[in-house]
Fold these 3 entries.
Entry 1:
Amino acid sequence: MSGAAAVDVSPFDLGPRNGAAALCLHGLTGTPYEVRPLGEALAANGIRARGPVLPGHNATPEELARVPYTAWLDAARDELEGLRVDHADVFVVGLSMGGLVTLALAAEGGVPRIAVVATPLRFRAPIPLLISLVRHVKPFLRKGGGSDIRDEAARARHPSYPAMPLESVHQLIQLQARVRSLLSRIEVPALVAHGRHDKTASPDDAHTLHRELAKSELLFLEDSAHVVPVDHDGPRLAEAVVAFLTR
């Protein structure tokens, strides 16, 4: 994984073991590194923050390509249940794919508040159809230009797979469809945050979530792209997430 040697991509478990806790979920082909700033801010404010590695990540593109989206949901649900053993209130915070998983868990109930960042609710046509067809012929798409981050220094050190498994994108599209069908069931307060310059997940998706969720607040980060926690507006996002979850 390129960039991994320069940063800590391992799972984290930070903060006190009493009070509330937060499960922090990374994005597709991502690592806990990209949500660690949120975890550190939560821990500094008295909330235990746990950031696991979701199945197929911190490994190889080939391994990720073999993982169905249900495995991401199952792993996150197991982590959530583990935190509930010691904490009455367990929040969920998710970036990108992690945001979709967060929404799915919130629809199941028992989560008091959530925060979702740069959540890709749908891809515009004909991308879903093309992915469905091309994945059998060209299973991996080589990445170029680094991750979708405006801060050049942060982009240069950001850990990433050299290629995107198109089967994993296909799984993400199926997860998107599942989550869209669940939005009307989500009644907990939600912070919906999105980078204004996001080229990976359309900012329109944030407007849709704000409209569809029963109780939501919308926050646009004006100087960031997709991976907001490590971009220019990372500190502002962290402050907003802490304030929202501790309100």
Entry 2:
Amino acid sequence: MDKIKSIVVFCASSLGNSNVYEDQAKHVGYTFAQHNVQLVYGGGRAGLMGVVANAVLEKGGEVVGVIPHFLNSKEREHRGVTKLIVVDSMHERKRIMNEYAEGVIALPGGFGTLEELFEMITWAQLGLHAKPVGLLNINGFYDHLIKFMDHMVNEGLLKQENRDMLLISDTIEELLDEMENYTAPTVTKWIDKNEI
């Protein structure tokens, strides 16, 4: 795979209870700028979202924010980004974010982060895209979720090859390396591409 030039980051619009989340979100932003990776994100300036965006901008990197009209007052749109796209709905937000990016990473977050992450990995599972999807497991935040996904496999409700599509690492450097070397499987949820 060629070098990834643009990545969607999903993460919290709050900072969390531990400084480690803010520190690592800032490190993600610095790393993106250092590697000339454009950040695509939810367009807000609050929480970890704002921290990542500000870190990329601080180091001279490019940031594309995509935010729905109705969230402007809640997440306070970031007007300092390279490009801000205001849309009408959450669905349009995700569609445009996906169009702009060559990969996806989820940092710690809440329901919204999980919803966005699982929609992207579901699209990959269905063969709608072949982009790498990564989970940055800062401070063991996603340990229980990872165990639950393994439980889904053990219970026969998720295929191991689909589970393995979600790249997981504790460091952004390792995760980016995994994403650079990712090759989408030829077998999606229902279709073997070799049989088409």
Entry 3:
Amino acid sequence: MRKKIIAGNWKMNANPTEATALAKRLIEAGVESDYADVVFCVPAIDIPAVVGAVKGTGVAVGGQNVHFKPSGAYTGEISADMLTDAGARYVIIGHSERRQYFGETDETVNLRLAAALAGGLIPIVCVGESLGQRERGVTIELVRSQVKTAFGGVSAEDAAKTIIAYEPIWAIGTGRVATAEQAQDVCAAIRTVIGELYGSGVADSVRVQYGGSVARDNAAELFGQPDIDGGLVGGASLKEDFVNITNYKARKG
């Protein structure tokens, strides 16, 4: 059985002082889960502070981006070594906001994925379609292409370490959410293409998340689908109610 993984993407929110306080509040509220790995993916400047705040717990910390070179004249970027040295274990790659605002492409996702794996990070690779693409009926075709390009040149051993997050762009931060059936269909397609690339053993071990307006009221249904292994959660991860998502089988209230 694949263990669920629920990661909070804090996006560009909270300075180090605020991040420390938030992490501590979430820990005190019971964000740790018996049946899911829990990760806080925080702004790079917050990583050391949040690592300190979660020390001694089962919560891990991740970054939100990684450059594809280990060092060099890349002003404003951050390398895998910098992330790991700061205490990060995970990193988000190819989030739709990176694609929309900062020119991320499937090809640069592939480069960043290789760098993250070489640097010892666990990558969370994001794929997903826009509303227009869904309405044109190209969702599965598009997502398959994104996965194939992202994993180009990646070994089976490394692929098995990777997490893939299906994030329909039209559901991120909008309050709209894919139905459990829609999300399951795409996550199953992702697992199928991994199987085509690497075989059933890797496909069965790779964890596939759903992201896009995950909330306390839909988490259990989404995470109960056979090919959905948890979630990449945005705004809801900044609130104590995140506890009801990480503990979706016994949510409070």
